[in-house]
Every structure is written in C-alpha cells, then in structure tokens.
C-alpha cells in the first residue's frame, strides 16, 4: 500500500510487491475504487505482481476540485507516476469502465509502459456519444445527466446512498453481494468524502468537453494487443464491439461474459481472471 503525490494530489495504490513477476495493473471504474478487484486479484497473484490504483477523485486518492484536473491525460499521468515511482518499465494494463479509458490514454501517452491492454465493458467514447438517443437513453443515460451544469450535484449530494444503490443494483444480485461483504459501505464512505461527487461529475464533464473532441479529431491506431470483455446484459450488449474497436486498435479480440451486467469484475471475477491469463499467454 502506498501513495504518490502528483502536483499535490495523493494517488493511492496497492502493490503486492512480488518484484520477480510480470506486472498486472488494475484500474477501476465509476462509482467504485480499487476494491472492485478484490475477487479478481487472488486469481492473478500466482503469475503477476498485482498493482491496483485508485483513480484521482475515487476511493482513497485525492479529490481536487476542477474539471480540468480530470482529463484523461491527467489521470493517465497519475498512473504513469505510480509505475515510475515503483520503477516498473512495462505492465499488462487492465481497466474497467472509466479505468479502461485511462488505460487507453496511457497507451497513447506512454506506450512504452503498456505491454498489453484489457478493456472491460467499454466502447470508445467517440462511439458512445454518437449512439442514437434511444440507445443512449437506455444504456448511457448517466453520461448525459452527469455533464449537465449544476443540477447533478444538487440532486446527488445528500442522496449519495440512494444514487449508489440505484447504480449498483444493475447486476442481478450485485447490490446484495456488495452489502454482504461490506464493499458497498466502503464505496459509500468514499463517495461521501468532501469533493467526491464533484470529482466524479468532473470526470464525465472533462470526457465530454476535452477528451471527446480530441478523439473525434482522429487519433492514430494503437498497436498494442488488446482484449475487450463485456457483460451479456451490460452496456455493450448487442453492439458490434470488436468491429468498432478495430477502427482504432490494430489487434483486438473480444468475448462476451455470460450471465452478468456492467460490473463484470465483481459479478464474474473468476471468468475475468481466466480470460486475462489466457490472453496474456497468447499471441494475436
């Protein structure tokens, strides 16, 4: 367990310290923290040195105020700073949800740090924002809601538990599991910290106002071997996942994880770990 200060913002990470093994770095999504990997990492530790990072604004990391502080390149720099501090030259980078977006940006900014990529239940942001309204309203309503000025914080602050309960009830039995093992209480504790709601909103607002235009202008294709995993009942259900990713990544393979929704690492941790291990030992 440690912390790196990046321009005065503390970035919390956990490191199992197995320096004789290749590195697997895990990045979580919204509205969670590195705790989301608690059932995945035990399946990975025999092969990897596992490092889990709390993205800025989430978990035990700092929660500065300011939309510009949550651009993808800033958050990717945080991750790079953790790897640099630990003198890690390259890693398998695994990201779920927002964490996968940070992983994608890291592959552009610091490609030497990225050996392979695993994205879990995400599509390119430039694809999401051009979905028909009917599709977006069903799967990505919070992407629109959370970029509205002022109103989301007014409705969420003081109602953090209700908001998290709604979000984390989108997987069959997920909310009950999170309550039973205490992880929901930890997610709620972090979400109630000063600046946490604003940080999460800034994350989405920076994506829309800063990161999205950059990707829409066109980015070079990534050459990193990439695995995309998604839940059968999650946001990517029914979408042409692999074909879309092939537009910006040269080497992509993907698999649908049966019987789960968006929060795949907590709904199907063993399956996720098995796919990660098989992918890293293969060559596309």
Question: Can you walk me through this structure?
Answer:
This protein has 284 residues and is α/β, with parallel strands linked by helices. Helices cover 40% and strands 17% of the residues. The chain has an 8-stranded mixed sheet, sandwiched between helices. Strand 5 (91-96), helix 2 and strand 6 (114-120) form a beta-alpha-beta unit. Helix 1 packs across helix 2. The mean pLDDT is 95.
State the helical fraction. 40-55%
Terminal CA distance: 34 Å
Beta-sheet strand percentage? 15-25%
User: Mind telling me the C-alpha Rg?
Assistant: 17 Å
Q: What are the key terms here?
A:
8 strands, alpha/beta, 284 residues, globular, eight-stranded mixed β-sheet, 17% strand
Care to give the gist of this entry?
This protein is 40% helix and 17% strand. By secondary structure, the protein is α/β, with parallel strands linked by helices.
How is the topology of this model organized?
Blueprint: E1 2-6, E2 9-15, E3 23-27, E4 49-53, H1 72-85, E5 91-96, H2 98-109, E6 114-120, H3 125-128, H4 133-139, H5 141-145, H6 151-156, H7 160-167, H8 174-181, H9 183-191, H10 196-216, E7 226-231, H11 241-245, E8 252-257, H12 264-267, H13 269-280
Parallel strand pairs: 3-4, 3-5, 5-6, 6-7, 7-8
Antiparallel strand pairs: 1-2, 2-4
């Amino acid at each position: 367990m440690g912390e790196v200060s990046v321009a005065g913002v503390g970035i919390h990470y956990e490191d199992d310290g197995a320096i004789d093994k290749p590195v697997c770095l895990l990045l979580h999504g919204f509205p969670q923290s590195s705790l989301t990997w608690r059932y995945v990492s035990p399946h990975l530790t025999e092969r990897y040195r596992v490092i889990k990072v709390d993205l800025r604004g989430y978990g035990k990391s700092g929660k500065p105020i300011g939309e510009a502080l949550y651009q993808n390149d800033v958050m990717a720099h945080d991750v790079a700073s953790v790897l640099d501090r630990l003198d890690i030259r390259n890693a398998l980078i695994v990201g779920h949800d927002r964490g996968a977006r940070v992983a994608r940006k890291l592959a552009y900014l610091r490609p030497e740090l990225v050996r392979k990529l695993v994205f879990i239940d995400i599509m390119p942001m430039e694809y999401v924002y051009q979905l028909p309204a009917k599709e977006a309203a069903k799967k990505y309503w919070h992407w629109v809601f959370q970029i509205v000025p002022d109103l989301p914080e007014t409705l969420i602050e003081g109602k953090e538990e209700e908001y998290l309960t709604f979000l984390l009830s989108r997987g069959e039995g997920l909310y009950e599991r999170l309550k039973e093992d205490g992880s929901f209480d930890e997610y709620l504790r972090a979400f109630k910290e000063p600046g946490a709601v604003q940080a999460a909103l800034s994350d989405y607002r920076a994506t829309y106002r800063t990161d999205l235009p950059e990707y829409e202008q066109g980015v070079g294709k990534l050459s990193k071997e990439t695995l995309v995993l998604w839940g059968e009942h999650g946001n990517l259900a029914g979408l042409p996942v692999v074909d879309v990713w092939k537009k910006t990544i040269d080497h992509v393979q993907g698999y649908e994880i049966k019987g789960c929704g968006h929060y795949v690492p907590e709904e199907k941790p063993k399956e996720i770990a098995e796919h990660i291990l098989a992918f890293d030992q293969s060559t596309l």
